[in-house]
Amino acid sequence: MLDNVTINQLRAFVAVCDQGSFSGAARKLARAQSAISHAIKALESAFDVELFERNTRKAQLTAAGRSLLPDARAVISRTEEMKNRAGAIAKAGVPQVSVAVDAYFPRAHLIDCLRTLQEECPTAAINLRITTMQGGEKLVLEKVCALAVTINDVPEVNPQAIERHWLREEEMVTACAPNHPLASTPKPIPADEFGRHPQIVVTDNQPGAEKTQQGVAGKRQWLVNDLGAKRDLLKAGLGWGHLPRHLVVEDLAGGQLVELERRAWHIRSLTFVVSQRRGHDLSACEGRLVELLGKG
């Protein structure tokens, strides 16, 4: 039965192959030669195949043995990795990385950063929250998350308790559907003309959250609490709005959205910051994630 295979039996199998004899394997593993022979017989019984030729003085693999040897090495290697990881956990505990990331942040870049972090900190447990507006800093204030990636123009939740650090910038574009009236309006378009049409605006879904008016052209607003919903409404021709270029680059290239040129109305790049509680010392994994998020 394969359930009866042990790691020591696999080690004996590999040692015999590497040393070329049962006696050599016994010396390498500091075990009696009879114990090595017993391990090989038990392994052959479990696999129901012969691993070594029995009519030669030198340990010579059968065809089945040659086929199974790479698998045995792989199992031993994975076991060693597991032991090392368990040792690291026992020594330092499982690293926790809890981060809230604003929905406007480039998702592909976020995934690349998390993939790299997983490779470098394989034992880390990730708690990722996607938020809007002040939602991330509220999670930091409530100690649900240690870090929040938020937009600098969003009013601070509690400047006395939370500090911000610059992270990166993303270009914003103003867009609408090709069938929207603004798409056929002579360019550049003044701000008051934008104000005559509904603007799709992402708002905070947190009760009592302070709102930001950066980039808002007038009182005709449709409020949504989801960035994907805003993009869908724009593509449906129900309004116009500002979106990060990385989110709509394919829509612009494919003609589902058109970029609108503004007259005498500058929209700043989207500045992302990292928010953390004052006095909080970043762990090695948290610091590495912040470093990765700021690159590119």
From TrEMBL:
Family: Belongs to the LysR transcriptional regulatory family.
Keywords annotated in UniProt: DNA-binding, Transcription, Transcription regulation
Origin superkingdom: Bacteria
Pfam families xref list: HTH_1, LysR_substrate
Species, as recorded: Rhodanobacter lindaniclasticus
Stored Gene3D superfamilies: 3.40.190.290, Winged helix-like DNA-binding domain superfamily/Winged helix DNA-binding domain
Domain HTH lysR-type: from-to ranges: 5-62
Protein name, UniProt field: LysR family transcriptional regulator
Organism placement in taxonomy: Bacteria, Pseudomonadati, Pseudomonadota, Gammaproteobacteria, Lysobacterales
Keyword RNA-binding included in the entry's annotation: no
InterPro entries given in the database record: LysR_HTH_N (IPR000847), LysR_subst-bd (IPR005119), WH-like_DNA-bd_sf (IPR036388), WH_DNA-bd_sf (IPR036390)
GO function term, MF aspect, one: DNA-binding transcription factor activity
